[in-house]
Design goal:
about 325 residues; alpha+beta; about 25% strand
């Protein structure tokens, strides 16, 4: 048995490539690194890796994390500039005894020393998106932070080894040096091969208030299915935030247990995700929250998937 679950449609090609590896008995860590690097390399996904949207100073600062569910090893990078695959740096850091979470210049020095590929991650497309957003912000009352999406994944291999990982350019127009939940273990991701794993996408500042990936794994450990754990954690935390703060940021969670069962929960209108298991090729689903706050999902139609690709690949134009 093997399986993988990932946030957002953008994970599809990576999950497809990883499930081929898993079918051939690859290790969960290798499959996961491959899948995330595939999303990082794609210039059309503007919230992860190459082509990721820049911060308010027009610099692309990337965050990523890797966790091994057998050893509980963790590796995380934050605000890294000019390296092609933050996930590879994070995974390498997970092999260190200490100094597992490095940010900014320290992370870049480490990556340089270990020979990771350097790359200017700011594309012409991303610059156009940035300039358009600056214009929109001055013309309309838009929230500056609209526009984000982290790729988060949980993977189970045929030897019952589980790993989880994330990669993101974070919130659009974030401040220089800002970190969200994605590289933070327990918030953006958590995995324990004896139980299962979870990963988050959404407003990092709120996700971190609930350590919600860890919470989902804890609920699964208590006996909840991944779907029950996701529903419970997201619904109750969303309600708690609304009660205490009057609002709750976007939050979408995925989980898989060590039996390959999976679940999702969201507090937004459309959250796409991808699942592949030994029984099922990589499939895109669309989840939404119903009136009772329960998450429902269905397979994405071919039309939806095609439209997604077309809009992502449409030429970027500077707005007048
Ligand atoms: N969680 C990410 C962050 O706050 C953004 C996202 O998942 O969309 O940086």
């Amino acid at each position: 048995m093997y399986g993988m679950i990932a946030t957002w449609r953008m994970a599809l090609e990576g999950v497809e490539a990883a499930s081929e590896l898993l079918k051939a008995d690859a290790d969960a860590g290798d499959a996961l690194e491959k899948a995330i690097a595939c999303v990082e390399d794609c210039e059309f996904y503007k919230s992860v890796g190459y082509g990721g949207l820049p911060n308010e100073e027009m610099e692309v600062e990337l965050d990523a994390a890797f966790m091994d569910g057998n050893t509980l090893d963790i590796g995380c990078v934050g605000a890294v500039k000019d390296f092609a695959n933050p996930i590879r740096i994070a995974r390498q850091l997970s092999k260190e005894e200490v100094n597992n979470f490095l940010v900014g210049r320290g992370a870049e020095k480490y990556a340089q020393r270990h020979g990771f590929e350097r790359k200017n991650m700011l594309t012409e497309r991303a610059k156009i998106h940035y300039q358009n957003r600056v214009k929109e912000l001055s013309q309309q009352q838009l929230k500056p932070y609209t526009g984000h999406d982290t790729v988060g994944m949980v993977c189970l291999d045929a030897n019952a080894h589980m790993c989880a990982a994330t990669s993101t350019s974070g919130l659009f127009m974030k401040r220089s040096g800002r970190l969200g939940d994605s590289p933070v273990i327990g918030s953006g991701l958590y995995v324990d091969s004896q139980v299962g794993g979870a990963s988050a996408t959404g407003l990092g500042e709120d996700v971190m208030k609930g350590c919600i990936s860890y919470e989902i794994v804890r609920l699964m450990k208590e006996g909840k299915t991944p779907q029950e754990a996701c529903d419970w954690a997201v619904r109750s935390f969303d309600a708690e935030l609304r009660k205490r703060r009057g609002q709750a940021g976007d939050m979408s969670l995925i989980a898989m247990n060590n039996q390959g069962e999976w679940g999702v929960a969201t507090n937004i209108d459309t959250f796409s995700f991808v699942v592949a298991t030994a029984q099922q090729p990589a499939t895109v689903y669309l989840a939404k929250r119903d009136a009772q706050g329960k998450t429902t999902y269905e397979k994405a139609s071919k039309e939806w998937i095609e439209e997604y690709v077309q809009t992502r690949k449409a030429p970027a134009k500077l707005k007048e």
